[in-house]
């Protein structure tokens, strides 16, 4: 079966591909976007124009009768071809990904290039000419920006800025070093006679050195994300490759200008100008990016009414920052890089969570798509007789120098950096860094941009660049993984996102700051500290929404994330187990349940409850006042949404009853895989563990192992709360109510509750399959002595409203949710989580006065 | 060199101090200067209000706890020896320190660093971080941004995460284990660049590096 899928896909690929080829062999016109078909034989042109003439639908001249359908190829030719090619490239990726045994050996980028060879070969076989190739304009304007934007937007911010010094040194000095040494060394060899006679001057060699020194982020990410090296190494390589693209382009432009000027006119003044222009272009571009980042952040403050296109603003403005920089002849790559890096924090806080997800996925789709196209076209472009001017000496020496000088440069710069680093970059990391200097499409694009009039040997340079790209991407890419394993490079360690981590991190920071103050001022993190102070005080006020400011605290953020993750998992588990009965019949059942309980246990409600009664009684009134439900509502879920409590009760609820997240928080930036570590096995295991621990808590409850400890908690908590006075928000009073309930529901009558639970869920029509993990437990022990919620591990503040209050309340989803944990603890894990998972997503929408366009 | 020696000679038992803490003479002098600057009345010891006079420290949310860490229970003053010993917790762990089998654990060992952090939480010194103690710290650090109830649930969850024996408190063992699985990077700052660098570190949590909400 697997083979047939394989085969079918290949077939589909070939069909799509041949369509796009056929279309071109039949039809000739100038295909501007994406493909260059200048070298067409005139014979085909004649035949095709004749075909065109006969089938051209839009010719208004001679129609004898009304045509029913016409052939309008020319109308759609360009977009059609573009779309077909995109499809072809993506199918290539699909084919590559079919077999993971292959991708684990050869990186995907290499495979794509190889597939590109094959496609190029087919085209060449059909046309005897190079019909399609990667045109620099398209590459730089349509394919590259989204890759850079995605990379910078997903950049681990803190890591990036804390290593910014090292990254900048590698990107700027390292690139200049590479450009200068490769260029000079090649020229020296040329003078020494290693390459025969070539029409290349020293300046041209330097220009070539500049373009070949660009470490390509696309290639680097593609290789490194499969290797999972430790994050410092990763950010160094990745950040360097991202920034040095910008530097390379600037260097390239400077040298290009020098070449145009000609060797004679270059004097000291011109060289100084060149250096000045280098810095102006690089820093100007970065500055422009920051300006655009500020613009974007401010814009997202006010986009909440147009949430659907909110994410689009970021993409468009990011692209504009790229184009603007290009227009001002500043460094476009640096501009879009800094735009993405700087605005990510603020837009993530400002925008709705859904928009953030949309943006991430949009960027991933675009970046991944164009990355695929770039690699395929790098392969396709190779099949061209014209560019292959073979000069063994030149090619081999280039490869040799590129590798050697990269190593020298990296080792030297790291040695300098290690003098002041607390944790030095160790030798294996340095080696991998140097080895990870993959060249890619940027170098090719720059080489293709060369002007043949100024540089007679353009084709030699282009061919050599391609070979260097193939050499680094395919050969170094393949050997990277074994090398990393062999050198025992420190891998990225996965660590859970934990509240302990967040909290201790914060505490440690405070401690260090205090120690710094005690010992005297101006430490290394003086800047960090003052920046964060300044940011809190001014930047956030300017760039963040006020409510976003409130929630940006990392501890709180971690808490929120953990809760969301848990909630999602529970829903998934519940759905898989098929016990989502609560969706259909929960309301009536629970109303009955509550009424019954209220009657039964009215006696047990202690005086404590009265203290909170006032607040609880107000619930219906205030909630109606706050959220008037319109009399006519077409949206079925409208009412539920209106009466959603705010986030905090959800946090509270989840916090009480969910287990610690076990999902790994993968630190690497990954372009192609968004959710990094989620396999079914893990889910299964989490589920089983959860079940096991719950069963244990049941058992311990039955044996009466540790109820005393639990009981002692309640008074303590109550006393802790009382000084705070009565909370003003009625929703917040719910948690305390249930303590009394859980506490007072004595063991004698708890068996009834258990029976009730059991009976209800099995009698419910359409209840589906109950959680199998619980059924045996329930059957064996109908007379349970202790209600399960008393023994729940995290059940310190239970969350259901008090019985008395619930008896009075008309049923509302809010209350339902609060009661759900009780049910969860006996029967299904998913009962309340479903409601809460949607809660957080919906919460922003319930604000009055907002009008949302729905997708 | 002469001035260095003369300053060093003024400090009593300086040899012992250097032996215990591992600070170099330059560091000791640097700290001694700072100590004298803090001790405005020249009594030879520091009182809590001397620390309180440090402006930045007053802004630190857990500043008073940190000041408290300098004073052993029942004592109102801290002399130079204790001062340096406390600061020695923050020296980087030296890897190439000769391993002497009988030597006591150095002050700047990882475990001692953690112990120092732990006692900032554990104010009643019973060896356990209770829920209330955790709440106090959280309240100080999170400030007004979150409500009491959120704080409580965060505290509960935090305890739940670390609490292995389910006694609803975090003991030092649990605290250490909670830190054990994580990546620790050294977090550095040095005092006054340009002068001899005095590097202070603490084990630093780096699991949040990926967190994109933070700059």
Show the helix and strand layout.
The complex is a heterodimer of chains A (about 850) and B (about 220).
Chain A: H1 2-26, H2 42-55, H3 73-98, H4 100-105, H5 108-127, H6 136-153, H7 157-162, H8 164-192, H9 202-212, H10 217-227, H11 231-261, H12 268-301, H13 307-327, H14 332-350, H15 353-382, H16 392-418, H17 427-435, H18 441-449, H19 458-487, E1 495-496, H20 499-519, H21 526-543, H22 546-550, H23 554-577, H24 582-601, H25 608-617, H26 619-626, H27 638-642, H28 647-657, E2 664-665, H29 680-703, H30 707-721, H31 730-744, H32 747-763, H33 775-780, H34 788-791, H35 803-808, H36 813-826, H37 833-842
Antiparallel strand pairs in A: 1-2
Helix pairs in contact in A: 1-3, 3-5, 3-15, 5-15, 5-19, 6-13, 6-14, 6-15, 6-18, 8-9, 8-11, 8-16, 9-11, 10-11, 10-19, 11-12, 11-14, 12-13, 12-14, 13-14, 13-15, 16-17, 16-19, 18-19, 20-23, 23-37, 25-31
Chain B: H1 2-10, H2 14-21, H3 25-38, E1 45-46, H4 48-52, H5 55-59, H6 63-70, E2 78-79, H7 80-88, H8 110-121, E3 128-129, H9 131-142, H10 148-162, E4 170-171, H11 172-180, E5 184-190, E6 199-205
Antiparallel strand pairs in B: 1-2, 3-4, 5-6
């Amino acid at each position: 079966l697997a083979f047939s899928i394989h085969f079918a896909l290949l077939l589909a690929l070939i069909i799509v591909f041949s369509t796009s080829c056929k279309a071109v062999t039949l039809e000739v016109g100038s295909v501007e976007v994406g493909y260059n078909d200048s070298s067409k034989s005139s014979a085909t042109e004649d035949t095709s124009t004749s075909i065109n003439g006969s089938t051209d639908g839009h010719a208004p001249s001679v129609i004898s009768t009304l045509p029913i359908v016409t052939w309008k190829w020319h109308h759609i030719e360009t977009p059609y071809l573009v779309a077909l090619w995109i499809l072809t490239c993506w199918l290539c990726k699909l084919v590559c990904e079919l077999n993971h045994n292959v991708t684990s050996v050869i990186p995907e980028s290499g495979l794509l290039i190889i597939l590109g060879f094959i496609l190029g070969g087919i085209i060449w076989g059909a046309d005897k000419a190079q019909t399609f190739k990667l045109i620099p304009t398209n590459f730089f304007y349509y394919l590259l920006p989204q890759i850079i934007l995605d990379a910078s937007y997903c950049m681990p911010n803190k890591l990036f800025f804390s290593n910014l010094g090292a990254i900048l040194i590698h990107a700027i000095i390292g690139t200049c070093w590479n450009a200068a040494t490769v260029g000079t060394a090649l020229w020296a060899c040329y003078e020494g006679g290693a390459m025969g006679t070539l029409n290349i001057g020293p300046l041209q060699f330097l220009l070539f050195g500049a373009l070949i020194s660009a470490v390509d982020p696309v290639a680097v990410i593609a290789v490194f994300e499969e290797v999972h090296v430790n994050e410092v190494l990763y950010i160094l390589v990745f950040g360097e490759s991202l920034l040095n693209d910008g530097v390379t382009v600037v260097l390239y432009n400077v040298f290009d200008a020098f070449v145009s000027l000609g060797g004679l006119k270059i004097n000291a003044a011109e060289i100084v100008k060149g250096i000045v222009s280098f810095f102006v272009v690089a820093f100007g571009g970065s500055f422009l990016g920051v300006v655009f980042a500020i613009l974007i952040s401010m814009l997202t403050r006010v986009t909440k009414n147009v949430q659907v296109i909110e994410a689009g603003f970021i993409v468009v403005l990011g692209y504009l920052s790229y184009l603007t920089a290009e227009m001002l002849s500043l460094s476009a790559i640096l501009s879009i890089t800094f735009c993405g890096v700087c605005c990510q924090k603020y837009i993530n806080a400002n925008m709705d969570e859904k928009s953030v997800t949309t943006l991430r996925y949009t960027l991933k789709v675009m970046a991944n798509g164009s990355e695929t196209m770039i690699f395929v076209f790098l392969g396709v472009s190779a099949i061209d007789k014209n560019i292959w001017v073979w000069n063994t000496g030149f090619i081999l020496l280039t490869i040799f120098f590129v590798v050697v000088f990269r190593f020298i440069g990296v080792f030297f710069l790291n040695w300098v950096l290690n003098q002041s680093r607390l944790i030095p970059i160790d030798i294996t990391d340095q080696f991998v860094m140097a080895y990870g200097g993959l060249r890619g499409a940027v170098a090719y694009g720059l080489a293709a941009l060369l002007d043949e009039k100024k540089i007679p040997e353009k084709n030699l340079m282009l061919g050599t660049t391609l070979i260097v790209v193939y050499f680094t991407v395919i050969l170094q890419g393949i050997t990277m993984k074994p090398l990393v394993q062999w050198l025992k490079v420190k891998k990225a360690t996965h660590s859970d996102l934990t509240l302990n981590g967040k909290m201790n991190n914060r505490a440690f920071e405070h401690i260090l700051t205090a120690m710094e103050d005690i010992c005297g001022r101006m430490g290394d993190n003086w800047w960090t500290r003052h920046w964060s102070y300044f940011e809190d005080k001014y930047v956030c006020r300017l760039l963040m929404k006020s409510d976003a400011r409130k929630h940006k605290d990392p501890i709180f953020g971690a808490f929120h994330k953990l809760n969301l993750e848990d909630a999602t998992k529970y829903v998934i588990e519940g759905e898989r187990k098929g016990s989502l009965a609560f969706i259909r019949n929960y309301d009536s059942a629970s109303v009955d349940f509550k009424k019954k309980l209220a009657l039964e246990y009215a006696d047990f409600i202690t005086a404590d409850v009265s203290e909170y009664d006032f607040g609880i009684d107000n619930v219906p009134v205030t909630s109606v006042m706050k959220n008037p439900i319109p009399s006519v509502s077409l949206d079925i879920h409208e009412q539920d949404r209106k009466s959603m409590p705010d986030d905090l009760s959800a946090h509270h609820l989840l916090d009480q009853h969910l287990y610690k997240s076990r999902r790994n928080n993968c630190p690497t930036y990954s372009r192609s895989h968004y959710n990094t570590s989620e396999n079914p096995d893990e889910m299964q295991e989490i589920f089983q563990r959860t079940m096991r621990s719950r069963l244990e808590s049941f058992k311990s409850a039955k044996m009466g192992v540790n109820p005393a400890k639990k009981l002692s908690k309640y008074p303590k908590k109550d006393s802790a709360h009382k000084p705070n006075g009565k909370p003003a928000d009625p929703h917040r009073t719910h948690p305390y109510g249930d303590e009394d309930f859980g506490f007072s529901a004595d063991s004698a009558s708890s068996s009834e509750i258990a029976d009730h639970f059991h009976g209800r869920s099995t009698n419910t029509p359409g209840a589906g399959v109950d959680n199998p993990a619980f059924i045996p437990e329930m059957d064996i022990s109908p007379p349970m002595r202790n209600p399960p919620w008393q023994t729940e591990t995290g059940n310190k503040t239970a969350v259901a409203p008090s019985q008395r209050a619930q008896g009075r309340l008309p049923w509302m989803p809010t209350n339902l949710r609060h009661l759900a944990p009780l049910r969860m603890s006996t029967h299904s894990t998913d009962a309340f989580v479903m409601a809460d998972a949607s809660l957080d997503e919906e919460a922003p929408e319930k604000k009055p006065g907002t009008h949302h366009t729905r997708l | 060199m002469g001035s260095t020696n003369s300053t060093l000679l003024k400090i009593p038992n300086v040899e012992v101090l250097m032996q215990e803490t591992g600070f170099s003479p330059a560091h000791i002098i640097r700290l001694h200067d700072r100590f004298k600057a803090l001790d405005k009345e020249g009594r030879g010891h520091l009182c809590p209000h001397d620390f309180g006079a440090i402006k930045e420290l007053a802004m630190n949310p857990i500043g008073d706890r940190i000041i408290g860490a300098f004073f052993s229970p029942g004592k109102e003053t801290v002399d130079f020896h204790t001062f340096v010993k406390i600061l020695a917790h923050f020296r980087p762990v030296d890897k190439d320190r000769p391993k002497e089998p009988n030597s006591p654990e150095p002050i700047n060992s990882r475990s001692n660093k953690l112990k120092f952090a732990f006692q900032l939480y554990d104010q009643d010194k019973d060896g356990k971080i209770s829920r209330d103690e955790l709440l106090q710290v959280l309240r100080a650090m999170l400030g007004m941004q979150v409500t009491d109830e959120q704080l409580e649930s965060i505290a509960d969850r935090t305890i739940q995460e670390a609490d292995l024996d389910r006694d609803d408190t975090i003991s030092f063992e649990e605290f250490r284990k909670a830190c054990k699985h994580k990546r620790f990077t050294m977090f550095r700052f040095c005092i006054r660049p340009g002068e001899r660098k005095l590097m202070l570190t603490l084990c630093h949590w780096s699991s949040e590096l990926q967190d994109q909400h933070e700059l």
